[in-house]
Amino acid sequence: MTGYHLSLISLTGIMIVFAVSLNMIMGLCGQVSLGHAAFYGVGAYVTAMMSAGGVPTLYALPVGMLIAGLMGLIVGFASLRVRDDFLAITTLAVGFLFVGVVRKSRALGGEFGISGIPESGLGPAGDAFLVAFCVVLTVALSVYLSRNWTGLAFRSISANEEAAQTLGINSAHYKLLAFCIGCALAGLAGGLYANYARFIVPGTFGFSLSITAAAMVVIGGIGSTAGVVAGAVLLTLFPEIFRFLGDYRMLVYGALLVGVMLFQPKGLAGIPSMVRRWAGPR
Amino acid sequence: MYYVDLLISGVAFGCLYAMATMGLTLVYGLLRILHIAHAALFTLGAFVGVWVFNASGSLIVGLIVAILAAVVMGCLIYRLIYESILSQPPYVPLLASLGVLIFLQDGFRIVFGEEGLTVRHNPFYMANFTIGAFSINVIYIVMAGGALISMAVLAFFANYSRHGIAWRATVSRPLLAANFGVNVIQVRYAAFAAGSALAAIAGVLVALMNNLVEPHSGELISYKGLAIIVLGGLGNMQGAFIASLVLGIAESFGIGLAGRYVDRDAIAAVALIATLMIFPNGIGRART
Amino acid sequence: MMRRIVFLTAMLSACAVTSAPADIIIGMHAPLTGFAAVDGKSARIATEIAIGKINAAGGLLGQKVQLQVFDDQGQGAQAVTIANKIVSDNAAILVIADSYSEPTRAAASIFQAAKMPYISAVASHPDITKVGNYVFRGSQLGEVQGGSTAVHIAKALKKSKVSIVTVDNDYGSSLLNGFKAAMGAQGVTLVGEYSFTMAERQFGSVVAGLRRDNADVIYIGGYWFQGGPLVSQIRAAGITTPIISSGLAAQQFIKIAGPAAEGVMIVDATGDDNANPEYPAFRAALRAQEAEANVFFSEIAHTAVDIAANAIRRAGSTDREKIRDALASTKDLRTMYGTLASYTSGREIIQRMPLSIVKDGKFAASGEMEIWLPAP
Predict the structure, then answer these.
(1) Quick one: pLDDT band at residue B196, thresholds 50, 70, 90?
(2) In this predicted model, what pLDDT tens digit does every residue of A94-150 receive, in sequence order?
(3) How far is CA A216 from CA A19, A225, A266, B259, in A?
(4) Rounded distance, CA C363 to CA C376, Å?
(5) Quick one: DSSP state of residue B113?
(6) C73: chain A residues, CB-CB within 8 Å
(7) Rounded distance, CA A144 to CA A139, Å?
(8) How many CB pairs under 8 A join A and B?
């Protein structure tokens, strides 16, 4: 296993954590977010600043998570006030706000970003292992949440919030929970990214990254943890897999997004049941 | 004098935004879709308009062909993409729309080249209109004038023609309108056609001002368009027009007075978030 | 179409590494797709021309040179993967980055750790060369450009009131920092300060501010896709103040701004009057591939190959440490972008700074500027 493979594994793992974290908000709880990169950015900046200040990566990562989670809680309060399309646009604005503030903030390095993030000291294999460990934890948490009472509550809110409230489900409580956990995990992914790239600039955490994450969730299959993992792997390795497309990659990416939404809105996760329907007795 | 300059550029851009994003408002009013691919129609209009203008030497011909191209593409997007996924949850058409935007932008890059097109004989080039100490770029006057005329025509149709009445009826009570014999499908095509045509005109005007059209020129209106829908209220034309003007002027003054210290996108974002927290359903209401 | 096929084949063969082991391999990453695709394409073609020339003349150390090109899409994450791939393949003896700051800085740490010589041809982030002793610069720093412009405005143009307009990224910020650091000693004052985002093309409020400022000189720092619309909008508003600029030395700038570009001074560019005897042939080769959109970027890309080839020849070996030492001792090297006098101990270039001016739709040489260097 060369450094190249390890770095691909790390990058893929980071994107899995990021996509699964968005799926908790968007897929499980049905709250559309178009600014998720902001929380990834919060995690990355907190981890980067602490590491550059001499704090070991393993201590910096949880702090990044915590702060991203708190930020998520604030945006969660917004989700109590606005819904659906308006929430999508609010989160979009949050994404722009984050990049805009960081860009102009001298304390956060402004346009120069943060360089000089030291190595974690775990070595390439250790870093990849750390990412893999975080992936396992995130996926396990996601599967656990979707299968117990919390997951049922999330799904009821996603399906019909009024009905869920009538049944006595405190939708505010669960929405806040979803934002808090989802954004904390995005912060974890961001922290891992800071450790991976060891140089971050504000532009990385903009609108296109938020869209990439949303695309991973819906191409994989909104709400399905396994599907979202598959979506994240597919889109992260997209440039490697589709290298033969050369110049036409974005064209194919756009077409893929449209195609999935048109013909398979359940994403990759919907494929097994579709195959079963075909193969089964008519 | 400085503030007058800022106001003039703000008003000119406000009018332009209104024209460019009217299609989003029309589509959102009818279908509740955040039609972000509309930005690609703006770019398409600009590319086709500039290309035909350069080839034929006639701006009018360029403008007409640009409008036709955008109208056809707009209606195709409705027919091929949105029509079959209207019943899906809102994120499905939104992401499909984003996919269309990405696809078309890359398509423009492949067809027209990544460096874009420039206008060969730009009639508004360095043209300005001077009264005493004032001088205004002619293109600003054309932008504002073009927007006001085209919007007035649209408003006239919406208020006094049968199609306009059908459209307003469909926006306010789709089922009832259909029961009263309104051809809802026809109304939708009309909305896509009208919105796309306006976007194409706006695209050509911006291309003339910058002397440049690039594959991602439409990004100018993609994010702002969504903000205008929200601020203007659901599918409300007057609301959207006022929101566009306010946004244009706020941007002009915001960049002019605080641009070095605050990112402009952040100013717009703060305004948007604050507005939504106070008016969770947007400022305006769909008028019937 | 044919070019696309050739390009695809080149990309594929780059991945497959089908070369004979005796070839000298030089790695390169550039934004071939994404927002900076025009620049990436300009750099790739220029690099291929430069290497083709070397091979036609018998190669280096008696071996053919082979180029491996990777697309970093202008993104840091992509650059990390690419850098790891190049390092893992362990075939390249030197790597060139013809890319923006984020991918270059992210990749630099990996090449430094692997002790692989790395030349950042265009990226201007000041921290790139601070990564370590294997990382070299190929072009002038933003700070030096900005500071030298302040000196030039005071001494050569004999003006003092300046309005400055810069792009919101590390390049624009560097220009501004350099300008501000140098202006005090020169008696230059800023009467207006504006910035714009990468995506900005509408400059109504900046132009309004410039009209109010009524400066002696306007200094613009950015890229052709912003500079073209900005300069034409300034002139369209009837502002006739002289304009000096950094980063606009692309033919596409003149194409967009047209007559408005006339008289605009360009810092650190020789333009169409480049005195290098090989320059006409280079331009002809670029023209043949329709790659003249950003000739300045192409010149710097060619220069990186000039620097690399010279170092490999002097090292007399493909040993990376020897090549690094040779790079550090580069002296009076004629490149496509001027004459590289030497490297500083911080591996920044020391080079005279030419000035060009737009005249009759071409970049004409207009003498040299005094160099200002930031305090160490």
Answers:
(1) very high
(2) 999 999 889 888 888 888 889 888 888 888 889 999 999 999 999 999 999 888 888
(3) 6, 11, 12, 35
(4) 33
(5) -
(6) 239
(7) 8
(8) 135
8 Å CB contact between B122 and B57: no
Q: What is the pLDDT of residues A219-257, one digit of tens each?
A: 898 888 999 999 999 988 887 777 677 678 788 889 989
To 10 degrees, the CA torsion angle through C290, C296, C297, C300?
120
Select from 1.10.3470, 2.20.28, 1.25.40, 1.10.287 the CATH code of B2-278: 1.10.3470
- CA of A160, closest CA in chain B: separation in Å? 12
CB B223 within 8 A of CB A96: yes
pLDDT of residue B261: 66
pTM over 0.90: no
CA B107 to CA A250: how far, in whole Å? Answer: 9
Question: Token match 């194919």: residue?
Answer: A252
| C21, pLDDT greater than 80 | no
- Chain C contact set for A204 (CB, 8 A): 75-77, 102
What ipTM is given for this predicted complex? 0.87
Residue of B nearest to C206 (CA): B256
A22, A28, A31, A32 alpha-carbon torsion, rounded to 10°: 50
Mark yes or no for CB contact B137/C205 under 8 Å.
Answer: no
Who among A111, A243, A250 is closest to C168 (CB)? A111
d(CA C163, CA C191): 5
Q: Which residue of chain C comes nearest to B3, CA vs CA?
A: C208
Q: What angle do CA A84, B39, A220 make, to 5 degrees?
A: 50
Residue B70 scores a pLDDT above 70: yes
Tokens of A9: 């594994």
DSSP states along A140-200: HHHHHHHHSHHHHHHHHHHH-HHHHHHTT--HHHHHHHHHHHHHHHHHHHHHHHHHHHS-B
d(CA B160, CA B154): 10
| Interatomic CA distance for residues B124 and C368, integer angstroms | 36
Domain residue spans of chain A: 3-207
Residues C73 and C65: their CA atoms lie apart, in Å, by 25
Q: Which pLDDT belongs to residue B185?
A: 87
DSSP letter for B213, please.
Answer: B
Domain assignments of chain B as residue spans, ordered by start: 2-278
Quickly count: other Cβ atoms within 10 Å of residue A252's Cβ. 16
Distance of alpha carbon A142 from alpha carbon A116, whole angstroms? 34
Q: A122, exposed or middle or buried, with CB in 10 Å at 0-12, 13-18, 19+? A: middle
Q: Using CA atoms, how far apart are residues A264 and B190, in angstroms rounded to an integer? A: 29
Q: Residue A95 CB: number of other CB atoms within 10 A?
A: 27
B63-67: long-range pairs with CB below 8 Å, 24+: B63/B200, B63/B201, B63/B204, B66/B200, B66/B201, B66/B203, B66/B204, B67/B196, B67/B197, B67/B200, B67/B201
Nearest to A198 among C73, C89, C109 (CB): C109
Q: How many CB atoms lie within 10 A of CB C374?
A: 16
Closest chain B residue to the Cα of C294, Cα to Cα: B115
**What count of other Cβ atoms lies within 10 Å of the Cβ of residue A25?**
30
Give the CA-trace dihedral at C6, C11, C17, C18, to 10 degrees. -20
Band of the pLDDT at B285, cuts 50, 70, 90? low
Q: How far apart are CA A254 and CA B101, in angstroms?
A: 7
CB A57 within 8 A of CB A161: no
Does the distance separating the beta carbons of C106 and A239 come in below 8 Å? no
Pairwise CA distance, residues C376 & C370, whole Å = 18
Backbone angles phi, psi at C162, to 5 degrees: -125, 135
Q: Number of B to C CB contacts under 8 A, please give it.
A: 112
For chain C, domains (ranges, CATH) are: 2-140+274-343 (3.40.50.2300), 142-267+354-369 (3.40.50.2300)
